[in-house]
Specification:
153 residues, two-stranded antiparallel ribbon, 7 helices, globular
Length: 153
């Protein structure tokens, strides 16, 4: 009996290239990324309050129920998106900081890297600021999502 996935040698590299069906884990990871990308676009375009989990599922090209099934709640989705957004942004700033010379202009270099990252990732930045702004109210549901990260940042 054969497997539904096969590995073939990739000519010239000697590495294996997978063919056949994707695993459940690969499909789940792909769906999560697509849903988070869709949430980012929707939050940047319509705002947090005007975007439902069903809207995000539809925007991602999946069933309207998949976002709810996958994340369970909008708060859980926002937690994941906020963490991903912060990680990407901080990684980009760190990479820019590593390229600067320690000559006293570090603050200027960091500010320049920050503004460049915001300009390069305008939709991501807008979506993050929409989510972050929704957490400001003292009794906001998302307050706890951002409080810990805000303190570390």
């Amino acid at each position: 009996m054969g497997s539904s996935t096969n590995a073939l040698a990739n000519p010239g590299t000697g590495t294996a290239t997978r063919t056949g069906r994707r695993t459940q884990e690969e499909r789940r990871t792909e769906a999560e990324a697509a849903l988070l990308d869709a949430a980012e676009r929707s939050f940047a375009r319509k705002g947090l309050d005007a975007t439902s989990l069903a809207d995000i599922g539809a925007e991602a090209g999946y069933s309207r129920a998949l976002a709810s099934h996958h994340f369970g709640s909008r708060t859980a989705l926002v937690e994941r998106l906020a963490a991903r957004s912060q990680r990407r942004f901080v990684d980009e700033l760190r990479a820019a900081n590593e390229q600067t010379q320690p000559d006293g202009n570090t603050l200027v270099a960091i500010a320049d890297a920050y503004l460049t990252a915001v300009a390069r990732n305008a939709e991501l930045s807008r979506a993050f600021l929409v989510m972050w702004g929704s957490s400001f109210a003292e009794e906001a549901q998302l307050r706890a999502v951002f409080a810990e990260d805000d303190e570390r940042f």
